[in-house]
Amino acid sequence: MANVSYPESYYAASANAVPPRPVLQSDIETDVCVIGAGYTGLSSALFLLENGFKVTVLEAAKVGFGASGRNGGQIVNSYSRDIDVIERTVGPRQAQLLGEMAFEGGRIIRERVAKYNIQCDLKDGGVFAAITEKQMGHLESQKRLWERFGHTQLELLDQQRIREVVSCENYVGGLLDMSGGHIHPLNLALGEAAAVESLGGTIYEQSPAVRIERGANPVVHTPQGKVRARFIIVAGNAYLGNLVPELAAKSMPCGTQVITTEPLGDALANSLLPQDYCVEDCNYLLDYYRLTGDKRLVFGGGVVYGARDPANIEAIIRPKMLKAFPQLKDVKIDYAWTGNFLLTLSRLPQVGRLGDNIYYSQGCSGHGVTYTHLAGKVLAEALRGQAERFDAFADLPHYPFPGGQILRTPFAALGAWYYGLRDRLGF
Q1: Of 328, 296, 25, which is closest to residue 184 (Cα–Cα)?
Q2: In angstroms, rounded to a whole number, what is the distance separating the alpha carbons of residues 301 and 289?
Q3: pLDDT band with cut points at 50, 70 and 90 for residue 95
Q4: Which InterPro entries does the record associate with it (predicted)?
Q5: Span 103-124, pLDDT tens digits
Q6: Nearest to 189 by CA among 244, 123, 109
Q7: Predicted confidence band at 309 (pLDDT cuts at 50, 70, 90)?
Q8: How many CB atoms lie within 10 A of CB 395?
Q9: Distance between CA atoms of 268 and 76, rounded to whole angstroms?
């Protein structure tokens, strides 16, 4: 089997050095077998190890190979659908629980970084930028909504104030969330993996799960070995393939594209984002950007439904970057890559259990960095018999994509076209 290595991204090029990890080549037993060494799997493993479980993690490629090591690196609170939408869907009690959890993922990341001394360029402060007055109105109501659930580190920015935060002429205002922020996402994953190993957990790389033998003592098979466990956590997200067919039907991998400039130098970098906050706009098909530790601009946007790799990523994203920052017209792009996230029809995460002992969490729908860290804690609680928070997620209604696997890509692309049109027309 050929080794699967990281895509040629800025994150892979600037990753902290880590030792090579073994391939599983024997039959082993463990309490919990975690499939996938991204944030969901690593967060689950850490919480379980801290609570005395014996944990084995299987990774098809390398730690953080998927969305965890390729995303925009932004710590964004709440979910892809906000708490008011959840409230209308499931009622006040369940919404209260989910609302209280909406800001926990970011806290978990900061706790992990501090406790395990993870070097990942953590910076505080994230901005939602409004392009229209209607979007500004949404941000005002979002602030009131989040404050209802105890989230108070928020400041509305008028047009003058947002200019002090981001040197872009396109915004009428924004919302600053000081509990948001940004990280080097691959280095966060690598640091969490080292923490897992420091607590006695084992991570096997280049060891894809090819089959799950279900039953009272489930067994996960890899090409050269197998793991017998009391519990399995399925944390493959957009890179799971068809390992668990009932999960594949309810979700769709989507690609998002990211570019990274050459180092801009302190003066130019600080003129773009003087406080070093990260920014995302309020469009449905949104753009997002931030500075790296070495003063490059990471800029992402665009969605490719069905997750094919577009031929020329720079051609898709560079015009978006220049629309925000025309002053970068002569700046060279050093890296361009695509990464997949998993979209659900409701745009809410799917959490649940298959039989008595196979647990899963998937479908962050673009809000993965914070949600996955919370998911790990919620899954670990469920394995310890504390299921209230797990059930709040598990009880969310979910639907298969209409027309099954064949039609789900055209349906979603049609939806994106419609929302893209709304963005352009300012609805």
Answers
A1: 296
A2: 9
A3: confident
A4: FAD-dep_OxRdtase, FAD/NAD-bd_sf
A5: 999 999 999 999 999 999 999 9
A6: 109
A7: low
A8: 13
A9: 25
In 3D, which of 102, 80, 92, 82 has the Cα closest to residue 149?
A: 102
Q: At residue 384, what is the residue type? A: R
Question: What backbone torsions phi and psi does residue 266 show, to the nearest 5 degrees?
Answer: -60, -45
With beta carbons less than 8 A apart as the criterion, state whether 244 and 354 touch.
Answer: yes
Q: Where do the CATH 3.30.9.10 domains begin and end in the chain?
A: 124-182+251-344
Query: How buried is residue 266: exposed, middle or buried, by Cβ count under 10 Å (0-12/13-18/19+)?
Result: exposed
DSSP 389-403: HHHHHHTS---PPTT
Q: What is the CATH number of domain 124-182+251-344?
A: 3.30.9.10
Taking CA 367 as the corner, what is the angle to CA 4 and CA 208, rounded to the nearest 5 degrees?
25
Domain 1-122+184-250+347-396 has CATH 3.50.50.60: yes
0.90 cut: is pTM over it?
yes
How many of the other CB atoms lie within 10 Å of CB of 123? 20
Alpha helices, H only, 157-184 = 159-165
Residue with structure tokens 């098909």?
A: 285
Angle between the N-to-C axes of helices 83-90 and 133-148, in degrees from 0 to 180, rounded to the nearest 10: 70
Q: If you compute the radius of gyration of the chain from its CA atoms, what whole number of angstroms results?
A: 21
Amino acid (one-letter) located at 32: V
What helix, strand, coil percent values describe the chain, rounded to 5? 35, 25, 40
Question: Which helix (DSSP H) or strand (DSSP E) does residue 128 occupy?
Answer: strand 123-130
pLDDT tens readout for residues 221-230: 999 999 999 9
- Three-class DSSP category at 93: helix
Residues 411 and 291: their CA atoms lie apart, in Å, by: 35
